[in-house]
Design a protein that fits this description.
The protein is an all-alpha fold. Helices cover 84% and strands 0% of the residues. It is built from three helices and no strands. The longest helix has 31 residues, at 27-57. The protein binds adenosine-5'-triphosphate.
Length: 95
């Protein structure tokens, strides 16, 4: 795993999974957690793929290249914020 962001997502995924075992999530809560963690991973992979593709096409400053990279990074950020909200909704009632 060379991408630093991927390592952060992997660490966060392991941490919330461990927390899930500790607090004893229900089946449906596990499904929601796995979908959320998997979604962040999948989006990060697509973001990296878009970054690499843009870099392959050009290393000059191009507005369309900027837009493609910023939108892909924005998708990861947006879903990560949703993931945090889902995490709070899942875990807060357990304490
Ligand atoms: N060819 C380009 N033309 C215009 N803007 C670019 C270009 N390449 C990068 N940028 C801008 O610079 C920012 C940083 O680009 P970079 O390729 O380092 O991506 P990054 O999001 O920092 O990647 P990483 O996830 O690897 O840290 C992009 O989000 C984009 O706004």
């Amino acid at each position: 795993m060379k991408e630093p962001n991927m390592r952060v997502h992997a660490a966060a995924g392991l941490l919330v999974s461990a927390a899930g075992f500790i607090v004893g999530l229900s089946e449906i809560e596990w499904c929601i957690l796995l979908l959320t963690v998997g979604g962040v991973f999948a989006l990060e992979m697509i973001n990296t793929a878009i970054e690499k593709t843009v870099d392959l096409v050009t290393n000059e400053f191009k507005p369309l290249a900027k837009m493609a990279k910023d939108l892909a990074a924005g998708a990861v950020l947006f879903f990560s914020l949703i993931a945090v909200i889902i995490g709070v909704l899942l875990f807060l009632p357990k304490f």
